[in-house]
Design brief:
With 70 residues, the protein is mainly α. Helices cover 66% and strands 0% of the residues. The chain has five helices and no strands.
């Protein structure tokens, strides 16, 4: 389960536009919001791309954002 608040904070810190992010992921805006908000899980390849785009290199941070225990 994605921690939506941590992901949104990371996106804000990156300064990237969400349209750029979901375009890079190859998904629609609708799908992006469902995944970003934790309704639908990200695929492993999408997590890898997001980490690259957002500069997430630490395993702990990756786990906190994308594998949160709610």
């Amino acid at each position: 389960m994605t921690d939506a608040n941590l992901l949104k904070k990371k996106i804000e810190e990156s300064g990237l536009q969400q349209k750029f992010i979901y375009t890079e992921l190859g998904i629609s805006r609708f799908t992006w919001y469902k995944k970003r908000d934790g309704v639908v899980d990200f695929k492993a390849s999408e997590i890898q791309t997001l980490c690259r785009l957002l500069g997430i290199t630490a395993l702990r941070e990756k786990e906190q954002i994308f594998f949160a225990k709610m």
